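User: I'm putting together a teaching handout on how multi-component assemblies are represented. Below are the sequence lines for each component of a complex, exactly as they appear in our records. Could you produce the 3D structure of the whole assembly as structure tokens, so the students can see both representations side by side? Please keep the chain order the same as the input.
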Amino acid sequence: MRRFGGGAIAAAIALLVAAAAFGLLVGSVPMSLSGLLRGDAMARAIFSLRLPRVALAAATGAALATAGAALQALLKNPLADPFLLGTSGGAAAGAAAAIALGAGALGAPIGAFAGAALATAVVLALSRRGGRLDLQRLLLAGVTANAFFSAVILLLFSSSSGANARSMLFWMMGSLAEARGSEAAALTVYLLAGGGLLFGAAPTLNLFLVGEESAASLGVSVERTKATVFAGAALLAAAATSFVGIVGFVGLIAPPLARLAWGNDQRRLIPCSAAAGGALVVTADALSRVLFSPAEIPIGAVTALVGVPFFLVALRRLS
Amino acid sequence: MTGDLVLSGVEVSYGREKALAGVDAVVSEGRIVAIAGENGSGKSTLLKAVARVVPISAGNVRVGGESILAWPRRRLARTVAYAAQSVDLVFPIAVRELVRQGRAPWRSGWIWENGEDRAIAEEALRACDLLDVADRDATRISGGERRRAFLARLLAQRARIWLLDEPTSDLDPRHRLEFLDVLRDAHARFRPTVLWATHDINEALAIAGDLLLLRRGSVVSGGAVAECLTPEALRRTFGIEARIERASSVPRVTFFR
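Assistant: Of course. Below is the structure of the complete assembly, with chains in the same order as your input.
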């Protein structure tokens, strides 16, 4: 029995660092590490172009995977993911609405958070039957919510004048193409806030793995924990979405892999999932730049391609 | 007297339906109470109300004269332990980890494996004959072993009141007898108050000194087995005739029509 999570967390962070190195080195123009170390101007230019993108990808993956891991423990459901629960869709629609209303870049995250919180609350309320979460209802409500939010985004962009198909694609499929260092820094601040909230709930989330009633009978204040975790997850999904658009399935891929590698103790799983999610999105982004070079496919499309098999595996295990 | 469990006018509603319609009961500290009644009579709900996993809409539950309704959850969990009728586990969890959860009310979740908690969990594993499967995944052991794992978690919780909801319902005869042995030994050692909801009244009578008969959310009869186990009370509880043999020290009920 492992006594402490230090080794596991170090391994997960090493994975993230390796992925980041990979993300910095590959691309339509390869960058040589020796060139960078020699102070070669070309290598430095590529590095300073790629670093914000890799950092933003890592923070996005970490945020979405952390939200997924915590929601899965809370709801005792391996399919809980900010995308499938409609949280990311609500965030994108909320951010797009804020922008359409003229709130500007500053208002977008606030709109995203409002949309994310509202979407999660509605989907979960619709998924309850007889006091417990019903899997079929959850999936149906999530699908319906996502269709609804896609329609809202389409509507907003086709009616507003300055809109173009490109920014619509950004919200609906995610994009790292225009990553800026300031965005990566801002998302990291949100990641620390939301991730800290969820990490703080980790020992309590361990008790939710057996169910809500069981957690309550062991002294857990269930409603307070739920409020904390939903707020933290909504914050993470909203922040990631308002900087990168909708990136789905990260929460379905990274936490299960981290769980397989390092076990299901949430005190260990939440930080390990964050690192694994960051590594996943950085790698997916690097591959999308190389495989389809010089074209780039949206990051959300890449994670969806990888994520669907994970969804099917989780679904099979549940039913 | 100090730790008596007293229910007064306890009501619980699920929507418009009243699952408990004003239950009054007094359980002296250290007694084992068999709770019997038809399906839907409120047996499970009564346990859930005492564990406060369902909201009580009226009435009060007191332990040693103090209302438990206002207690912080953690204090309640140090006093009352609850084993649900069935729990479906989705994620893998080692039996030992599951049993250690019983220590949660007593420690901060951030402390990794405190020595005393570990010793108590090991002792509970041993008492429930689970040492062989302690490292196995609780989703992959037999139903009987899983029942014992939740009993071990309850033992590790070291509460004074144990609520058991049909703890033997899916066990084969051998495991039922073993479960009774474990419970009997644990009771002799810790002297908890036990509320045991059951469909098998004879099994519960093997160790219960008290009886609480429920019908449609109300008490038909409650008190010492010797006084309230009568054919008349059983007829009013279950709607069928019953014969009671008292040849041995343990009474035996046979139902007929």
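A couple of points students might notice: Chain A has a mean pLDDT of 89. Chain A touches chain B through 28 residues (CB under 8 Å).
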